[in-house]
Specification:
heterodimer; A: 284 residues; alpha/beta; Spermidine Synthase, Chain: A, domain 2; Rossmann fold; 2 domains; 7-stranded mixed β-sheet; 5-stranded antiparallel β-sheet; 12 strands; B: 483 residues; alpha+beta; Aspartate Aminotransferase, domain 2; Aspartate Aminotransferase, domain 1; Ornithine Decarboxylase, Chain A, domain 4; 3 domains; 4-stranded antiparallel β-sheet; 15 helices; 18 strands; globular
Chain lengths: 284, 483
């Protein structure tokens, strides 16, 4: 018997991983959650059938969503993480002793529970005393906050299903309000490659650009995501990730990372021409 | 609870059977189950086109129902607690007109609040009935028209003892209900029929803790827009009837203006929605109520906005409130409702039901989700942060009591000429002017045009309201009566 997990990346493109054995399946209040074990990617989990995290390549995503803003402003103390139920983002953040407080807001408690059981590799720092978990709608949580955070990381699913509200103008506006005057917003920014993802990416970029004076996009290669070419958004009220990065300060922390380094930091903001064009035309 | 088995849906079932028989169509519609119009079939779906059929023996006939439509009507009547239910395919508008035309002949009087939907005044133009208007109460703070007070109704009855009927909104667009039961008793004591516009009240029949429905209050007829909050397709509605009127007479009246090609898409949507609400409506509207209450609480937390609710109840002109209507007063943040309505759509991708001078209204019904409401609340919070301004100079009312000079039909058919609205002070209007939505006339045929009304129209236009009603599509000119 052969068992394959297949994700439909477009109507005409499929991506499959041979499954060694299925580990878990259930329907939460918000979505269907599945966990599989595979020989190539180790454990991986999907939400409504879409790939979220694999043990093999999660380091790329989590390195890039955390260390880029942290190297830009080492003074970050208060962090809000939205989504990120697998725990990888929180794991990376807790490596900075300078961070005092991490609020994590995940709409679906079942995701966190499942990851605690099947992904000890990522879900290992939820119990750090600086971490406070909230199980509610991120859009609602951030609405009531004002001038509170140095960094907001939006580690969301795609903009359909429960993650929909986290790609909206009102959400980014609420984030702006929740950030301090030198605050940074980093978000999972979809992919430029396939059209449907590129549209989401453009919409998100347009909305963020309207609100934040500094608005940049950076990239990473994540093999298990559609096309592998993935983007992150970096928006802030003052800091520029290219001119404000302090290589020495970050390198002196001695953090061992598998993907991120300060040269990648400088290079990842250099984008292919077709992506630049998509970003310029995001308003149309 | 119900006498009949509400899990049946006879029209829907007959359509399924018809489909399974793979009948070869040599009748209308000419698209022949979609084959003749591939683009439309691609757009609406083959399933949809395959049941866009004409009346035939196995599917009954809306004009003269004897089989599956008759059964479906009986089930609907049972579900709504009515003596009879008619399936309507031209909106609650056709229901309102059928109600009035069933009980009023040329020259008969009908007592009604002036803040009715234009369909009611249209019915007066068609039938020649004469309105005896009861001016609704007005909430000064919100500027909105309320229900009819009992004293005003008594006075109207005393002044018009020969009136044939009393017409009532249950609820108004904003969710306000009059004391339907007392008004019904008063009317019946004076030998008048009670006709209810329940375009916005289909959920009253199924939800718990809702305002009383027309049929429960003993009213004689009610027009229910099933498509508004009940989940059926746009344009479909029910006309409900009590036992004081003859079913045959009402059907004859409906058939004066209703199409003889009733759409089976609309009919089956009514049938399926009735079944859905009869079986699960209580839970569905419990959820809708909880969502609306939650959103109200969150919106009021933002500050500046006022999402009003049952605290408006005053035992008379606000006898009850439909808490599924999420009405929000916006003037305190310096924005007209219509401005917030436009910003929500253009900037945030959120379409709400209506924005008027000082309020917006979001309809919460069978299809709503908590996450969508979070978006609405968060957007309102952002709109306040980004757009708040001084409120001075803003109009503070939605409604002006009109001076009625002559009956709508007489005015409509009088000799008229067109003049600029700005120069029309003192003339008698020959046409309607209204913001749509809500579709409640600012001016109706036969009413005196005043300076205040002209200012109101100019203000609504400047703020971005969609004005309708005049022959002049740009709403610059108005037809007035020759005097």
């Amino acid at each position: 018997m052969e068992l394959w997990y297949t994700e439909q990346h477009t109507d005409n493109v499929r991506f499959s991983i041979k499954v060694d054995k299925p580990l878990y399946t259930d329907q939460s209040e918000f979505q269907r959650i599945d966990v599989f074990h595979s020989k190539e990617f180790g454990n991986f989990f999907t939400l409504d059938g879409l790939m979220m995290v694999t043990e093999k390549d999660e380091f790329i995503y989590h390195d890039m969503i955390v260390h880029v803003p942290m190297a830009t402003n080492p003074e970050i103390k208060n962090v809000l993480v939205i989504g990120a139920g697998d725990g990888g983002t929180v794991r990376e953040l807790t490596r900075y002793s300078t961070i005092e407080k991490i609020d994590m807001v995940e709409i679906d408690k079942m995701v966190v529970d499942v990851c605690r059981e099947y992904f000890p590799q990522t879900a290992c720092k939820f119990d750090d005393p600086r971490v406070q978990l909230y199980f509610e709608d991120g859009l609602k949580f951030v609405r009531s906050k004002e001038n509170t955070y140095d960094l907001i990381i939006v580690d969301s699913t795609d903009p359909f299903g429960p993650g929909e509200g986290l790609f909206t103008k009102e959400f980014y506006g609420n984030c702006y309000k929740a950030l301090k005057e030198d605050g940074i917003l980093v978000n999972q920014h979809e992919s430029p490659y396939y059209q449907e993802y590129a549209k989401s990416m453009q919409r998100a970029h347009k909305r963020i650009r309207e609100l934040f004076p500094v608005c940049r996009v950076y990239q990473a290669h994540i093999p298990s995501y559609p096309s592998g070419h993935w983007l992150f958004g970096f928006a802030s009220k003052t800091y520029d990730p290219l001119s404000d990065i302090d290589d020495k300060a970050w390198n002196s922390l001695g953090l061992k990372t598998k993907y991120y380094n300060t040269e990648i930091h400088k290079g990842c903001f250099a984008l292919p021409n077709y992506v630049l064009e998509l970003l310029v035309n995001a308003g149309e | 609870m119900h006498l009949l088995s509400q899990d049946k849906a006879p029209i829907y079932e007959a359509l399924l059977k018809y489909k399974s028989m793979r009948v070869v169509p040599f009748d209308v519609p000419g698209h022949k189950q979609g084959k003749g119009n591939p683009e439309l079939t691609e757009f609406l779906g083959e399933k949809c086109l395959s049941v866009d059929v004409n009346s035939m023996k196995p599917l009954d006939n809306l004009v003269h129902p004897v089989s599956v439509i008759k059964e479906a009507e009986e089930l609907a009547a049972d579900a709504f607690g009515a003596h009879h239910a008619f399936f309507m395919v031209n909106g609650a508008t056709s229901g309102v007109q059928a109600m009035i035309m069933s009980v009023c002949k040329q020259g008969d009087k009908i007592i009604m609040p002036r803040n009715v939907h234009r369909s009611a005044i249209n019915a007066l133009i068609i039938s020649g009935a004469i309105p005896a208007y009861v001016n609704p109460g007005v909430n000064k703070e919100l500027g909105i028209p309320l229900g009819m007070s009992i004293d005003d109704v008594k006075k109207a009855i005393a002044e018009n003892p020969d009136a044939k009927a009393i017409f009532i909104n249950n609820p108004t667009y904003y969710g306000i209900c009059s004391d339907l039961k007392t008004i019904t008793e008063l009317a019946h004591r004076h030998n008048m029929y009670v006709l209810v516009d329940e375009a916005h009240g289909s959920h009253f029949y199924f939800g718990a803790n809702m305002p009383i429905s027309a049929m429960a209050a003993g009213a004689d007829m009610s027009a229910v827009s099933m498509h508004k909050t009940g989940g059926s397709l746009t344009q479909s509605s029910f006309l409900l009837k009590g036992d004081r009127l003859s079913t045959g007479h009402v059907r004859q009246t409906i058939n004066l203006t209703q199409t003889t090609s009733g759409s089976y898409l609309l009919l089956s949507s009514l049938d399926i929605s009735r079944r859905n609400l009869a079986l699960g409506g209580k839970g569905i509207f419990e959820k809708a109520s909880a969502l609306a209450n939650y959103a109200r609480e969150e919106i009021n937390k933002i500050g500046g906005y006022y999402a009003f609710s049952t605290e408006l109840i005053n035992g008379d002109s606000v006898y009850d409130f439909d808490h599924t209507k999420l009405s929000v007063h916006t003037r305190e943040i310096g924005l007209a409702g219509i401005e917030v309505y436009d910003i929500l759509r253009d900037e945030y991708g959120i379409q709400i039901e209506l924005g008027d001078i000082g309020n917006i209204l979001a309809i919460i019904s069978v299809g709503d989700r908590a996450q969508a409401l979070e978006r609405l609340v968060s957007s309102l919070s952002e709109i306040k942060r980004l757009y708040i301004r001084d409120k001075s100079g803003m109009l503070d009312h939605e409604y002006i009591n009109p001076e009625v000079v002559m009956a709508p039909q007489k005015a409509f058919y009088s000799d008229q000429h067109s003049i600029p609205i700005k120069d029309s002070t003192g003339y008698i209007s020959g046409e309607f002017v209204m913001c749509y939505p809500p579709g409640i006339p600012i001016l109706a045929p036969g009413e005196r045009i005043t300076e205040e009304i002209i200012d109101y129209i100019a203000y609504a236009k400047a703020k971005g309201s969609s004005l309708t009603g005049t022959e002049d599509m740009s709403i610059e000119n108005i037809r007035v009566l020759e005097e």
